[in-house]
Amino acid sequence: MTQMSQEEIVSNTKTVLQGLEALRVEHLTLISNLTEGSKKDPDKSEIVMKNIENIELGLGEAQVIVVLASHLQNIEAEKQKLRTQVRRLCQENAWLRDELANTQQKLQSSEQTVAQLEEEKKHLEFMASVKKYDDNQENEEQQEKSRSDPVVELFPEDESEERHTMSPTPPNQFANHANAGYEIPARLRTLHNLVIQYASQGRYEVAVPLCKQALEDLERTSGHDHPDVATMLNILALVYRDQNKYKEAANLLNDALAIREKTLGENHPAVAATLNNLAVLYGKRGKYKDAEPLCKRALEIRENVLGKNHPDVAKQLNNLALLCQNQTKYEEVEMYYQRALEIYEMKLGPDDPNVAKTKNNLASCYLKQGKYKEAEILYKQVLTRAHEREFGAINGENKPIWQVAEEREENKSKNRENTPYGEYGGWHKAAKVDSPTVTTTLKNLGALYRRQGKYEAADTLEDCALRSKKEALDLVKQSKVAKILGVSDENRRQRMKDSDSYDEEGKRSQK
After folding, report:
1. Are 301 and 267 a contacting pair, CB within 8 Å?
2. Range of 111's domain?
3. Which of 60, 230, 297, 342 has its CA 20 to 30 A from that of 91?
4. pLDDT digits (tens, 9 = 90+) for 428-452
């Protein structure tokens, strides 16, 4: 007897089912005739009834077989679906492995190139480290540039990013902060980290598809209205913003905002973070009026959740002040900056870098209004505090740079050959003082002095700013030269190798 397939068994069962149903109808007719006719036969009626029961039993078993066959078909379909998903995941895994292999090959190629050039670089770097720079010529060129247009130095382009731009939440920090309370699924964590890595490297052609794949996977497994989906929408929006695709970024941020308001509540910190990013996006597009209410709402949420004196509230106040400054609402700008300054000083202390930055921002607001005296006071406070941290309490022998500059301005008529500032102090020799904020303050106060006609004082501050910026680049080189010149001849080659190793590490840290 040949083995029957599942389809043949089901087909034959249905045929038998039809035959049993017809036989059941015939028996019902027969039993009716035996019980209602003139000639009743109890024995035949009992036999017919037993046959009917057997027929119904057969019908039930046939129906069970049909239902079981249908169930097996559904199981087979689900099995095929799972196999398809497994194949897709295997393809994704293979794609990621290929991408990793390509990256490793590029890394190996770069390392080989560095190794080939290392010997040539040794001699050139050593010669550059012992070379003397013509400081006086560069100082004169810098002074000539400053005299040409002193107002430009009040708002230097190279420092504007630190002092006058809003502070969006960085993608990696934003993702960690936004995910508080729930974890990204393990199978998506790799994609999530790759998006952040590729975006930071500017490889948007890889980051965007990866992020979209993560979003598609999340929406399929968890639904569109899920906090993890909002997190990935935020990250993709930040990638689009870096590509200047502001319209796409705005749509994603608005979608993420709606999801978080629905799932986390309207007063959740993640909602405030999304509002802040959306406000920053509008600010970049010049839509300050649209950005201001978003920034105010983010401020209100952070005040309610974190308290009115939290440092994150101060950051939001700085962003709000910048939006108002771009709309020339200077009274509000002063209020927001002053409140942010109070929070930083209260919670983080007077030596926190945010205190000096906020004072610079407030001074910038004063400058735009022509309040030069108020701006001058703030600049002097920043420089005085930096001096005290580095050189101790101020006295007659230990004066901050701005006092030295003003004294030189007063005595310029008595002594036309003023001594260079290097003999008055050592700011440009102290690495701790050499920070972008302090250097910016030196340049801005120098430009303010120049506007007031105090050219000698302006030259002193600008010379110090130039030395501070340059000294940071020379300190590492000078230390290497000292090591090289101090070794014996017989150990010089080994020590130079060590010095080269240190130089490579230092370059990495600078980069």
Report:
1. yes
2. 6-118
3. 230
4. 444 345 577 888 888 899 899 898 8
